[in-house]
Design brief:
Elements: H1 5-9, E1 20-21, H2 47-54, E2 65-72, H3 75-78, E3 84-90, E4 99-100, E5 108-109, E6 131-132, E7 137-140, E8 146-150, E9 155-160, H4 167-171, E10 208-210, E11 215-219, E12 222-226, E13 242-248, E14 256-261, E15 266-267, E16 270-271
Parallel strand pairs: 1-6
Antiparallel strand pairs: 2-3, 3-4, 5-9, 7-8, 8-9, 10-14, 11-12, 13-14, 15-16
């Protein structure tokens, strides 16, 4: 397996027009196909990056949770300032367990084409209709494993075996969160930007957004995808990060969607994160 380092570092110039694109193996792999059958991509890491991947970052969760994201700029973890996909998990609020991606026993890489820490060669252009999007689905199997997939490619990216969790495996989740998250390392007093670094309510061309937000429930033994219930949604703004314009378009494209983000920095001599 040979990864095309030049292609990985290259920022391809997007074409003009109203175009929404996704993963293209030929932009990432030297052979334009991925790893040979029977193998999966695993990123090589320095000792410093490995320490960052297993560092226990403070969490608002005091119990089991896992997450998957595709907007991640994490220089100490990835060794660059590019946008990566990533996952992380814990069973005790990151007290003693959990890590990013495959840097400790937990998440299992299944796809030989899409690595869990995939670096996107392009990003969205502000004030244009050109947007980079990735639609992901997380579901629980009859064996209580959790699988992460990319539906448009019908590709299983990876899974968390049921043995990793106790409550989540037996009873499923009682809380689902969507949105952005930022982290300020110790010793720094400037909060990083979230999303594309700005928030303009009502303007999806200028603001980071999520669309087709759905979650799965089981009714009479049958699984069904539903949109969030507005009466059960709790939203939160901070001094420098915002969310808004959440509504259900019921059109098969946007469906339930919202905007989020902010510039970060400082606000009245304080960092922007509570």
């Amino acid at each position: 397996m040979v990864m095309a380092k030049k292609l990985e570092r290259q920022r391809l110039k997007p074409k003009r027009g109203n175009k929404l694109s996704g993963f293209k193996a030929e932009e990432y792999w030297l052979n334009k196909k991925g790893c040979p059958i029977g193998t999966v991509p695993i990123r090589k890491m320095t000792k410093k990056q490995l320490q960052s991947a297993t560092r226990h970052v403070p969490s608002s969760f005091g119990h089991e949770y896992f997450g998957y994201n595709w907007i991640d700029v994490h220089p100490s973890l990835n060794g660059d300032n590019r946008t990566h996909m990533y996952t992380k998990w814990t069973v005790d609020g990151h007290q003693k367990t959990g890590c990013y991606n495959t840097k400790c026993p937990g998440f299992i890489q299944l796809s030989r084409v899409i690595p869990i820490d995939y670096a996107f060669p392009r990003t969205s252009q502000i004030e244009t209709n050109y947007k980079e999007e990735v639609l992901l689905r997380l579901y629980q199997t009859e064996y209580f494993d959790y699988h992460l997939t990319m539906p448009v490619m019908n590709e299983e990216i990876g899974m968390w075996p049921y043995e990793v969790f106790d409550k989540l495996s037996a009873n499923a989740a009682d809380l689902v969160q969507f949105g952005g998250k930022v982290y300020t390392p110790g010793g720094q007093d400037v909060s990083p930007a979230m999303g594309n670094g700005q928030f303009r309510g009502g303007y999806w061309q200028l603001t980071c957004y999520m669309r087709k937000v759905l979650y799965e429930i089981e009714v009479d033994g049958q699984k069904k995808q539903v949109v969030p219930d507005d009466s059960k949604i709790i939203s939160q703004d901070s001094r420098c990060y915002y969310e808004g314009n959440h509504y259900n378009a019921n059109d098969g494209y946007w469906d339930y969607n919202f905007l989020f983000g902010g510039a970060g920095g400082k606000d009245q001599w304080e960092t922007c994160i509570y």
